[in-house]
Each structure stands twice: as structure tokens, then as C-alpha cells.
């Protein structure tokens, strides 16, 4: 059942913002995060793992809001829990999308620059 739901929701992430708003996409990402780990046989050697990873990682180039990007990182972290080879990549993505803990809604430029070193 979880696989069917994720399969139904994933295509909506690829729709243009005028058809599916980023707020709706944020809700979809929350659902996907919760359901990935309960899909039977969902592991790095499975073709489904690669398919979902490819579809979700492509959204990094289209989703702009902080909320959606944070949720994308959460989904990618779920993938990295199953495939340790992704941990460094996900950590890099997390760093280049980081925001300051001191100033409201301001990017953490130091952490972003450090990610490239």
C-alpha cells in the first residue's frame, strides 16, 4: 500500500508550480518521508530505490522555498540511512542549503562556503 501511495504522489512533484503549488509539494514530501521506510523491499539494491532517488533528487533544481528544500533534505536523509554511500552527498546538500541559527531567514554563508572546502 505504501508503494502505491508514493507512486501516485511522486508525479505531482514534477508538475509546474501553477498546477501544483510548493505548499502542496511540501505536504507530498512529508508523506513520502514517512512512507519510504515501510515500503517492502525498499533497499539500495532495489531498482525502486534508484527510481525514487532520481525523481526526488531532481527536485533540488526546481523547488525554491526553504520549507520544500528542508523537506527534500529530510527525504534524502531517509535514503542515506539505507545507503551509507549517500551520507556524504546528503551532508553536502544539507550544508549548501543551511540557514543561520542567529538571524531569521538568512542563509548561513559560512557553512555554505565551508561545504565547498
From TrEMBL:
GO cellular component terms listed in the entry, alphabetical order: 90S preribosome; small-subunit processome
U3 small nucleolar RNA-associated protein 20 N-terminal domain mapped to chain residues: 1-117
InterPro entries assigned: SSU_processome_comp_20, UTP20_N
Any Pfam family hit: UTP20_N
UniProt protein name: 2110_t:CDS:1
